[in-house]
Amino acid sequence: MNSLISKDSKWVLTEKGTDPETIRQNETLFALSNGHFGTRGSLEEAERTREYSHSEATLVNAYYDSELIEYGEWAYGYAEKHQTVIPVPNGKKLAIKLDNDLFDLETGKTTVHKRQLDLKKGLLTRSFTWENSQGHKLDISIERFVSYDYPELLAQKVWITPHDDGCDLRIVATLDDLKEMGSISEEESNDPRIKAQKERRFKSERLEDFENQLLHIETNSTGLHMIVGEKNELSDSSVQSCFENGSESWEIDTVKGETITLERTVGYSNIFKGASMKEEKAQKLSTVMNEASAIGFEGLKEKHVDHMEEFWESSDIEIEGDDELQVGLRFNLFHLYQAAGRDGKRNMSAKGLTGEGYEGHYFWDTEMYMLPFFLYTQPKIAKHLLNYRYTILHEARNRAREMAVDKGALFAWRTINGKEASPYYPAGTAQIHINGDIAHAVHSYVKVTGDRRFGMHEGLEILVETARFYAGWGHFDEKRNGAFVLNDVTGPDEYTAIVNNNYYTNLMAKHNFKYAAEMVEAVLEAGDEDGLGVLERIGFDKTELENWKRAADRMFLPYDEEQELTMQDDSFFHKEVWDIENTPKDKFPLLLNYHPLTIYRYQVNKQADTVLAQFLFSDEFSQEQKARDYEYYESVTTHDSSLSRSVFGMMASDLGEMDKAYSYFMDTALMDITDMQSNTKDGVHAANMGGTWMSMVYGFGGMRLLNDTLQFRPRLPKDWTRVTFKVQFRHRLIKVAIGKEDTEYTLLKGEPLVIRHFDEEKHLD
Ligand code: BGC
């Protein structure tokens, strides 16, 4: 087990000592965020000792810059511009000088160095004793959190206790506007999963006429503005501070045993367009910061801890029988909660706000991996995430036209602003399953929350436009007895590209047609005015309905009768099988070591594809079929993508293979803590974190929504004695406690409800 996890606490990750590699690695794990912005868990003095830091970045959700994508050879419809989330001014920076020595882990001597991430409270703490070269000592503690109550704010407090009288202590707090960026290595700039920042991507100006220190920043090319501000309060108000070049400093004559504290509030305003708003926005941020400073660090912290308590109250999962795994599991839930945009305009990137990997882009990861957690524990956030898709629907429509489909919408494979940002279309735009993924999420949201208003308005529009795109992309193939086919697509497995009839895509499209038809019919039947208004506005015509139904009925789903196996696509079984076992370990992930065409020519999977389709619609397949397909596809899967293992784990639970389910689950739950994919430095794997929640609830809890009824088929791994979680379902809150022998379902809130436990109906009152 990773050394961050100890037997003593089910809530706290602890790092001890000053090993540079460990501290660097934990920068990602100790990142704090709130959906609006996030800041990596870097040391306050990281800039002075680079080997302790990979990136100190503070990232604001959807604060991105853009530049043209340079293609060696361009073709029509290629994505035009990069969208890259960029580090904004760093407000964590602090310098402490005692006599002539500036503190860092390489100067003088640091002892009892400890950092802890308290998941329960959402707090990062650091403490140590530092002895300078003259033998004078300071005890230092630092606390930091990113507020949910004031989403603009990062709050920090520093306690410094001198061991000696009469030393010169200087404290410098800096709001670093990144004039000098760290350098990046060759290796980093080649990894397609990273887009390392070579230079600062915004202009900054200091605003003078405000009582707080404020910076106005504007991206180089996207015209996105923000105000960043800082306010400091030293416990000893008799000490005057001095302002210089964006830093505030204090000179103190030390008194032995007398603790000095510094409270820092750093604010990141919302993003705005147009410099003319800067005064107003600056005033607004200043007001929030003044309010926060009037409450004080301890007061803010109290509110924050209360907020976290509420979060855990509804979203925690308890495991009895494995304390260490318990912390690991909570770590995933903590990061999931931190990452989600909460304003309906921004989403949740593949790395959350913990690192610059994947440029801060939103993928299908949100709908298929992260959303279920929110859907069943924080439905309001789930709605915000779906609303974001609604806000970019017009871009998706434009994209469909670019792809020469004259009706409907195609969502971008990876994006921030709604436009396609994937420069590599075979593993980008070709993944048109994203439409079906979003439609599936909309459908699930409406089923689980009962929010018909959303379903018949925003939901309806998304369902119709995504279905229309499939209708236009595919056709009824006379050579296949008139079956509906979707050619030249890429499924979830990115090691197989541009194929005909990817099983997963076709199955998602089939359901997309059904969801759209169902919702349109519901609107027509109810005569719902909003819904009818939407249908009129988007020029819906009844013949479309018939066409979708026909396409759904006749959807081509490739199957090999001889082997009795589901086919990943038309050509998959015609390829040679890649010899995974005899591929040297250092050649994984394959994507960094083989040309894409080499990989595409083989039967080899980066991640779950057909197995994911069968997991999502598990009641549509027999257990025997699922078991056969599982065995086959597992043998050709490398799990080079972090989105893979959780799906194989859940399917193992479905098939009753509990040892296997447990083993996949361990890898899933501890993926970032153990740096299993060797790239946690670039940010956490948020989809896998969603996969962790799903593994518990869908996997071990066996929860499915079937014909509007929640069904559970619980099964625990052998060493666990009890698992408890809560789910929200149509204004009810249900607690599920799974024991070795029995399962207890308690209705904590809401009207009576019928659920199914295996095949038995149970009435919850
Ligand atoms: C996976 C995709 C995923 C992306 C972002 C890739 O490695 O293959 O399925 O959407 O990472 O997490």
From TrEMBL:
Active-site residues (renumbered): E494
Residue numbers binding substrate: W364, D365, K606, Q607
A biological process from GO: carbohydrate metabolic process
Alphabetic keyword roster: Glycosyltransferase, Transferase
GO molecular function per UniProt: carbohydrate binding; glycosyltransferase activity; hydrolase activity, hydrolyzing O-glycosyl compounds
The Glycoside hydrolase family 65 C-terminal domain, residue ranges: 703-763
Source organism superkingdom: Bacteria
Residue stretches making up the Glycoside hydrolase family 65 N-terminal domain: 14-268
Record-stated family: Belongs to the glycosyl hydrolase 65 family.
Official protein name in the record: Alpha,alpha-trehalose phosphorylase
